[in-house]
Design brief:
The chain is α/β, with parallel strands linked by helices. It has 13 helices and 14 strands. A hairpin with a 5-residue loop joins strand 8 and strand 9. Helix 6 packs across helix 7 and helix 6 crosses helix 13. The two termini are 29 Å apart. It binds 2-acetamido-2-deoxy-beta-D-glucopyranose (5 copies). The site of one 2-acetamido-2-deoxy-beta-D-glucopyranose has 6 residues, from strand 13. Belongs to the glycosyl hydrolase 29 family. Alpha-L-fucosidase is responsible for hydrolyzing the alpha-1,6-linked fucose joined to the reducing-end N-acetylglucosamine of the carbohydrate moieties of glycoproteins.
Length: 479
């Protein structure tokens, strides 16, 4: 009698713990995104706005491209903060000296604008790069802290790409090209501007006045939404003043209730000095946010291919550029923890994407063309990284009720022996192991406690499906 009782007890414990795990999963990933979005109206308060589910397309997309392009692409030195480093409250000596050494004494930042020529800008070619990269969305700086609008804005007289420099609508032309390739289009927009007199006056008034917001920031944001119907609004430049100064909650309530993009639009968390990592849509928390642990809220990691800047720099060195191994590692880590990767490159003032960036993007696409099954539309698994073998990151696909269907082990370092030890998966009699892009299943043996040892056959070099990381697909896993 003892044995059946014991077996029943084990079964009961296993069932209860499986249900608990399912409950935890549902708690983390389902409540935020109910199956049927209800037709609710949102109040202009964080308490109400924060209840809006993040549209599913964004969680499924996993990978987007970020572009920092503007007048700062003309000096193409130091980055998007060039003007502030030169003329701001705390000038940087090397930038001041760079200007003294290379430009006439009365040169102003505004003089750079006519040199922002974009004569080789081919939005269809850019869209081809991003689509080949396997990206599902593209986010362009429509206006960075310098205040220059990359679209012919009614609210930025003579400081926009229609009036000066490119003499064309950089935003609209890219939106059309990436959408033709089936990608979503997002607009980065900075709330504040370094030297706008209206902003400086509101700041001097301790933000008790809102003239800059009423006359510049908000009209611009409404204009962007109504003209380009962006799929993402990537807000930034929020930290100087609380969201009450920026009027952010009123804007977001309009965006979610009444705007032409109310059902599909996704926003981030940079809407006021108190909001980052707390309020808004998905969280970005910081630049290069790669937490390496499971997150409770949808996040996105903005990471730049040039480790030192978001914008193109003429003094870029090869050693400053993330390697393919690093890019794939960040993608695997971010996705396994529930995030998206927004990989940034800086185009040149002529409108080209430097070939080293183009190569990184196209090679990311090569990897995704074999291994995308382990990335797109996946869900975090029970474990994010393996408990015994370093550099192994997991993702999964799940049924609607949360039950795991496939587990993907993304192996960043080729195992030293012909055996790969994975300690975290709990195997069953029906467990199978394959490598994405390689047809023959691998044999495996259970480890004494839990987990498995996979026997990797001698794969001919020309049949190895990937160059930078390898994905082992496991089925019949019970955790
Ligand atoms: C802004 O705040 C500072 C410090 O609290 C104060 O000294 C200053 O008078 C205030 N300025 C205005 C315009 O209210
Ligand atoms: C803030 O938004 C509300 C609602 O759209 C509007 O009535 C108000 O004028 C806005 N205030 C500013 C400073 O933009
Ligand atoms: C991986 O998992 C182990 C626990 O199994 C943990 O101690 C470790 O910090 C994790 N993270 C990384 C980056 O290895
Ligand atoms: C969950 O869904 C899958 C696939 O639809 C099904 O096979 C499984 O029995 C379901 N499990 C539970 C506990 O409902
Ligand atoms: C790999 O695992 C198999 C089966 O467990 C074992 O016979 C073999 O010795 C292992 N090889 C290495 C290099 O550890």
């Amino acid at each position: 009698m003892l044995f059946p009782f014991f077996a029943a007890a084990v079964f009961l414990v296993a069932t209860v713990s499986a249900n608990l795990r399912r409950y935890e999963y549902i708690k983390q990933f389902k409540i935020e995104r109910p199956q049927k979005p209800q037709q609710v109206r949102y109040d202009p308060t964080w308490a109400s706005l924060d209840t809006r589910p993040i549209p599913q397309w964004f969680d499924d997309a996993k990978f987007g491209i970020f572009l920092h392009w503007g007048v700062f692409s003309v000096p193409s030195y130091k980055g998007a903060w060039f003007w502030d480093f030169w003329k701001g409250p705390q000038p940087q000596l090397d930038v001041v000296q760079f200007m003294q050494a290379n430009y006439r004494p009365d040169f102003t930042y505004a003089d750079f604008a006519s040199m922002f020529t974009a004569e080789f800008y081919d939005p269809n070619y850019w869209a081809d790069i991003f689509s080949s990269a396997g990206a599902k969305y593209v986010v362009l700086t429509t206006k960075h802290h310098e205040g220059f609008c990359n679209w012919p804005s009614k609210y930025s007289w003579n400081w926009n790409a229609g009036d000066v420099g490119p003499k064309q609508d950089l935003v609209g032309n890219l939106a059309n090209a990436v959408r033709q390739k089936g990608l979503a289009f997002g607009t980065y927009h900075s709330l504040f501007e370094f030297f706008n007199p209206l902003f400086l006056r509101d700041q001097a008034n301790n933000f008790t006045t809102q003239d800059f917001v009423r006359e510049k920031t908000m009209p611009e944001l409404y204009e962007l939404v109504n003209t380009y119907q962006p799929d993402i609004i990537w807000s930034d430049g929020e930290w100087m003043a609380p969201s009450s100064y920026w009027n952010s909650t009123n804007f977001l309530a309009w965006l979610y209730n009444d705007s032409p993009v109310k059902d599909k639009v996704v926003t981030n968390d940079r809407w006021g000095s108190e909001t980052m990592c707390k309020h808004g849509g998905y969280y970005t928390c910081s630049d290069n946010f790669n937490p390496k642990t499971l997150q409770q809220h949808k996040f996105e990691d903005p990471t730049t291919v040039d480790k030192l800047a978001w914008t193109f720099r003429r003094n870029l060195k090869l050693e400053d550029v993330h390697t393919m191994e690093e890019i794939i590692a960040i993608l695997a880590q971010v996705v396994s923890c529930g995030g998206n990767l927004l990989l940034n490159v800086g185009p040149t003032k002529e409108g080209t994407i430097p070939p080293v960036f183009e190569e990184r993007l196209r090679q990311t696409g090569q990897w995704l063309s074999v291994n995308g099954e382990a990335i797109y539309a996946t869900k975090p698994w029970t474990h994010q990284n393996d408990s015994a073998t370093p550099d192994v990151w997991y993702t999964s696909t799940r049924a609607d009720n949360g039950t795991v269907i496939n587990v993907y082990a993304i192996v960043l370092t080729w195992p030293e022996s012909s055996n790969l030890t994975l300690a975290s998966p709990v195997t069953t009699a029906s467990t199978t192991v394959t490598m994405l892009g390689y047809n023959t299943p691998f044999s495996w043996s259970p480890l004494p406690n839990s987990g498995l040892q996979i026997q990797i056959p001698a794969i001919p070099f020309n049949q190895l499906p990937s160059k930078w990381a390898w994905v082992f697909k496991l089925t019949g896993i019970s955790n």
